[in-house]
Write a structure and sequence with these properties.
The complex is a heterodimer.
Chain A lengths: L10 E5 L8 E5 L6 E6 L13 H6 L10 E6 L8 H15 L5 H10 L12 E7 L1 H20 L9 E5 L11 H8 L3 H8 L4 H24 L8 E4 L16 E2 L20 H6 L4
Parallel strand pairs in A: 3-4, 3-5, 5-6, 6-7, 7-8
Antiparallel strand pairs in A: 1-2, 2-4
Chain B lengths: L1 H18 L6 H15 L13 H19 L17 H15 L2 H12 L2 H8 L5 H6 L8 H20 L7 H18 L8 H19 L7 H15 L6
Classes of the chains: A alpha/beta, B mainly alpha.
Chain lengths: 285, 247
């Protein structure tokens, strides 16, 4: 993995190239940093531009004080060419590499930026996963996968206390173009209906929704079995002008009032007059 | 008044848990009620949301206190249920409570109910006559206020939640648990089925009209040869969701 540093502020930017495509990070200079915040962009999005201007505002001291003790990671994945399943696997590998102990190269950079001894162990005690649109599905699929594996092995998942913050998540898919799509977003249609509608143009749309339904089902099942694990409960917000994805949450999720004047793209982009995203990710605790 | 129904329903469902002597703590449910209260108390919904009354907003804190006292108190007016392994029902009951609370949060369900009960026949027909696409119906989610799309969205959302409440029963492992959960479900459904008010022929007719329109729209999207079978299966799915045993 190659890396290099960019700017000198409260956080310093680094590029974690090669292994994780265009994944970037903003590492805090604060020696008491205990939190990793991982941002996952949506379909056809960009690891950093999707979240403009989170990092700039954080460096200017805007938002909650907790940002000073947070390292920010902007995860990149093949949103256009890879399946949800594959991207979820990529995220899982990435999370294993940074939480609770980051890769040696990241640890080295953290220590350098914080003016600490090179060999000092860096450990995060909190993990916050922030998703936009399809990125939210990748996060939920990944968390469900980790949960299922842990269930089989009998060990507690490392991500069990991760906080999930989702902006305009596509958990129930994009706006349907067919009635069958609409109904299958709500109903566990599955086999019998799949057979009946096979060959129709609506079938492909239905199958996409059924994949999403599977992730929902797995997550809700895990939430039911492990109600104390907060990783299965997401904090979800939409804009009032949302017109791209269905405004729905899993039943255990925490619902927040829709943000006036914000659409699918703008909901996760803070600026000097719209600081809600900063305080939604950090500052609710 | 719908708000009163909602409170009554919460009350009965939770009293059912008391009756079962389940090891449920009020604290486990409070976050869900707090969520609901926070939702209905949202400033921009006040006055714009016809089915959430100011009375509910004012009464909700008292309701929560009352509920808490009943949960911790010795006296209860709850009905007893005779279950063999009540502790096995706890996760199912918790899920039912979550689903039931989520239903209270859906403004379009309230819109559908309001439309079925209170609209004049002419107004109802004008809403049913509107040309709608699936996108319109999807966009109506979370939207308070009467519209054709919201009525259809409310119907589908309610069918979905009812179906999932029914689905909580099938996950049990033993015959005894299965029988217990079916009894529990019957009890809970008795408390929440006020939404399916078929006391009048008109409300039944309106329910059927929305259902048929959705089935027809969906059937038009599949090959002609399979439409007949599709309609029958789809109709059965809806009836199963609402637990309607039709002659």
């Amino acid at each position: 993995m190659s890396s290099h540093t960019l700017d000198p502020q409260l956080h310093r930017s680094v590029i974690l190239g090669d292994v994780f495509r265009d994944t970037r990070a903003k590492l805090s200079r604060n020696a008491k940093t205990d939190t990793a915040v991982v941002f996952v962009h949506g379909f056809n999005g960009h690891p950093v531009k999707t979240w403009v201007d989170f990092s700039g505002l954080v460096d200017n001291g805007r938002g909650a004080a907790e940002w000073a003790s947070s390292d920010l990671f902007f995860f990149d994945y093949c949103d256009v060419t890879k399946s949800i399943d594959d991207s979820s696997d990529d995220l899982e590998v990435f999370l294993e590499g940074i939480y609770p102990k980051p890769f040696p190269i990241v640890q080295l950079l953290c220590n350098e930026i914080r003016g600490q001894d090179k060999s000092q162990e860096v450990t995060y005690s909190k993990l916050i996963l922030v998703g936009h649109s399809e990125g939210a599905i990748i996060i939920r699929s990944c968390i469900a996968e980790i949960g299922k594996k842990s269930q089989m092995s009998g060990a507690s998942p490392l991500t069990q206390n991760a906080q999930l913050i989702l902006f305009a998540p596509a958990l129930f898919g994009f706006m349907p173009t067919y009635w069958l799509g609409l109904v299958s977003q709500l109903f566990p249609f599955k086999q019998i209906m799949d057979l009946l509608v096979a060959g129709s143009p609506a079938a492909a749309e239905m199958r996409d929704f059924i994949t999403l339904d599977q992730i929902r089902h797995e997550t809700e099942e895990l939430s039911r079995q492990f109600p104390a694990d907060q990783a299965y409960v997401a904090h979800v917000v939409f804009g009032q002008n949302e017109e791209v994805v269905r405004k729905k949450r899993y039943f255990q999720d925490v619902k927040y009032s829709a943000i006036p004047g914000k659409n699918h793209v703008a909901i996760c982009k803070p600026d000097h007059e719209y600081l809600f995203p900063l305080n939604f990710v950090r500052g609710r605790e | 008044m719908i708000a009163a129904h909602e409170l009554t329903e919460c009350y009965f469902v939770i009293l059912a848990a008391r009756g079962l002597r389940l090891p449920l703590r009020f604290g486990e449910f409070k976050p869900f009620f707090d969520r609901f209260f926070k939702f209905v108390a949202t400033e921009d919904l006040k006055g714009d949301k016809p089915n959430i009354s100011l009375g509910l907003l004012a009464d909700f804190p008292h309701f929560i206190v009352e509920l808490g006292q009943r949960f911790t108190g010795e006296e209860g007016r709850e009905e007893r249920l005779n279950l063999r392994i009540p502790e096995a029902i706890v996760p199912i009951f918790r899920e039912i409570i979550q689903l039931q609370t989520s239903m209270l949060e859906e403004p379009t369900i309230l819109t559908y109910l309001e439309a079925v009960r209170t609209l004049s026949r002419d107004d109802w027909q004008s809403y049913m006559g509107a040309t709608l696409g699936p996108r319109d119906v999807a966009l109506a989610a979370d939207t308070p206020g009467m519209s054709s799309a919201a009525i259809f969205n409310g119907f589908l959302t309610m069918a979905s939640v009812m179906s999932r409440i029914n689905g909580t029963v099938v996950r049990t492992e033993t015959d005894e648990e299965q029988a217990d959960s079916a009894t529990m479900l019957e009890y809970v459904r008795a408390a929440i089925d006020w939404r399916l008010d078929f006391k009048t022929r008109e409300s039944m007719r309106r329910f059927d009209q929305v259902k048929s329109q959705i089935i027809e729209n969906a059937a038009s999207e599949i090959p002609y040869a399979r439409r007949g079978q599709f309609r029958d299966e789809f109709d059965r799915l809806f009836n199963d969701a609402f637990q309607l045993a039709l002659a």
